[in-house]
Amino acid sequence: MLFPTTEFALFFAAVLLLWWALPARWPRARKLLLLGANLAFYAWWSWRFALMLVASALLNHALALAVARRADPAARRRLVRLGVVANLALLAFFKYAAFLVVDALHPLLLELCRAAGPGALQAFLDFQQDRTFPFVQSIVLPIGISFYTFQAVAYLVDVGRGACRPARSALDFANFLAFFPKLCAGPIARPAELLPQMEDLPGRDARIDTGRALWLVVFGLLKKTVLANFLAERLVDPFFSHAGSLGAADALLGAWGYAVQLYLDFSAYTDMAVGLALLLGFTLPVNFDAPYHSRTLQEFWRRWHISLSSWLRDYLYIPLGGSRRGAARTYLNLFLTMLLGGLWHGAGWMFLLWGALHGAYLAAERLVLRRLPDAASAPVRFLQRVWIFHVVAFFWLFFRAGTGGLGLAGAGEVLSAFARTGAPSTLFTGTAALVLAAGFLCQLADAFRPRALWDRFNRLPVLVQGLAAAVLLTLVLGLGPTGVPAFIYFQF
Questions:
Q1: Where among 159, 174, 199 does a domain terminate?
Q2: For 379-402, b where at least 16 C-beta lie within 10 A, e where not — what string?
Q3: Same domain, 244 and 291
Q4: What is the pLDDT along the chain (492 residues), one digit of tens a residue?
Q5: Between vectors from CA 263 to CA 258 and to CA 266, what angle results, nearest 5°?
Q6: Domain range spanning residue 429?
Q7: Is the dihedral of CA 25, 188, 181, 476 positive or negative?
Q8: What is the C-alpha separation between 347 and 99, in angstroms, rounded?
Q9: Quick check: 182 and 284 in contact, CB under 8 A?
Q10: Do both 193 and 259 map to the same domain?
Q11: E strands along 185-298, which residues?
């Protein structure tokens, strides 16, 4: 069930009315209503995986209770490791089994059987056709599994560290794990951020920041349905589909277009997730903060997909040793963190390469910046921002090769377009340039920058707020295409 659809609009309207109709003195009924809404939202796609989500919630909560009861630190660590391994093993099966079998194991076995002779080779090919391919095709990646798995891991680790206590009930934890606004693509909420809100639900006296909520929903719809989809249709998809015959000007437009499209698409989802949660009385963390205005790649990762970046820092980079074990180990930890971050994004060599490029650059950047002064003039800061945007946009080409299934050969074809400097542009139009610039400037509304606008909207009468939101939604949906493609990060 996608956010920019009639089905979701009707679903959310029904949930919102029932949610605020139930009195605060019935907390259990409200929690059951929320759990029902969470599971209905997920079951719209697959009821089987909705049951798997329930099982994950029950098992992780039971493990957290067992961890909290152990007084022996070693026993606590063993239980936490067991839970982390179990969560990651489930994620690995759905996300990486096909990749490991088809792209890693089979090429090796194929060469071994070829060396063994025609009989062994034919037996392997028959096995591949009869057994392996049906097995791989039967694996369906559950939507959002990467996001709720990381939330479950954070819960177990934080309970083990004593950073948070177990949820008061399995019902509270299930609602924390399966909260439908952020279920499919984040942001990744930490236990300390969202779990207390699930335990002590907002009542009718709660002050709802409707100005911010409606801005995030409407602006998110604009970014997704109008700007991101226009760039995909007019710049990005045409470039990646015909990169072999296009020149450097179109390659640059395609790279810029994909960088801005990805930002618009992903930030739109998390904007709407935060806004919808606010309308229900819940607060989710900010996930984007003008990432393409960064002066370093490290700063970019503080501003892009903030909930994932901070998760990787706290649950991977720091446990690996962080920057506490000398410069060489710091560089290695940065590289390994980004390499695994690339693998989290998808099962494929392109994702690993994308993560490796970020890790190598971050390590080199840290080495260089240690030897440079911090102060920089305004022109230098501007050039730094331009440089980092192009570095990130270049790296995104490998990410797009992974999501589009282009592989290394396809990525090479994309890169070869940059060498054809004399070819005229076939993709450039005034409208495309305008949308590209507008999409880039949308970053100026990230985080809490439009606070003054929200506050003015909050001072309007409720009826006026509702009418204004309805008009804006109608205009945005009217500008968008018929039928909206899935969000890019639904694949992760």
A1: 199
A2: eeeeeebeebbebbbebbbbbbbb
A3: yes
A4: 777 788 888 899 999 999 999 988 899 999 999 999 999 999 998 888 999 999 999 999 999 999 999 989 899 999 999 999 999 999 988 888 877 777 777 778 878 888 888 888 888 777 777 777 777 777 788 888 999 999 999 999 999 998 899 999 999 999 999 999 999 888 999 999 999 999 999 987 788 888 899 999 999 999 998 899 999 999 999 999 888 889 999 999 999 999 999 999 999 999 999 999 999 999 999 999 999 999 999 999 999 999 999 999 999 999 999 888 888 899 999 999 999 999 888 878 899 999 999 999 999 999 888 777 666 788 888 999 999 999 999 999 999 988 776 777 888 888 999 988 888 889 999 999 999 999 999 999 999 999 998 888 888 887 887 788 778 777 776 666 666 666 776 656
A5: 115
A6: 210-295+376-479
A7: positive
A8: 6
A9: yes
A10: no
A11: none
Could you tell me which residues come within 8 angstroms of residue 491 by beta carbon, excluding any fewer than 6 positions away? 141, 346, 403
Question: Of all residues in the chain, what percent are helix, strand and coil, respectively (each to 5)?
Answer: 75, 0, 25
Residue at 116: amino acid letter: A
Catalytic residues: 345
Same domain, 264 and 193: no
Question: How far does the chain reach from its first CA to its final CA, in angstroms?
Answer: 16
Cβ neighbours for 186, distance < 8 A, ≥ 6 positions apart:
147, 269, 270, 273, 287, 305, 307, 308, 489
> What's 489's DSSP letter?
G
* 266 plus 406 within the same structural domain: yes
Cis peptide before 187 (omega within 30 of 0): yes
Q: Which residues contact 181 (CB under 8 A, 6 or more apart)?
A: 272, 273, 274, 276, 277, 280, 282, 284
Q: Quick check: 248 and 190 in contact, CB under 8 A?
A: no
Paired tokens of 236: 């990005």
Domain final position from 138, 165, 199: 199
The count of residues in the chain is 492
Give yes or no for a contact between 156 and 11, defined as CB atoms under 8 angstroms apart. Answer: no
SS3 426: coil
Whether the Cβ atoms of residue 217 and residue 276 lie closer than 8 Å to each other? yes
| CA separation for the pair 102, 96 (Å, rounded) | 10
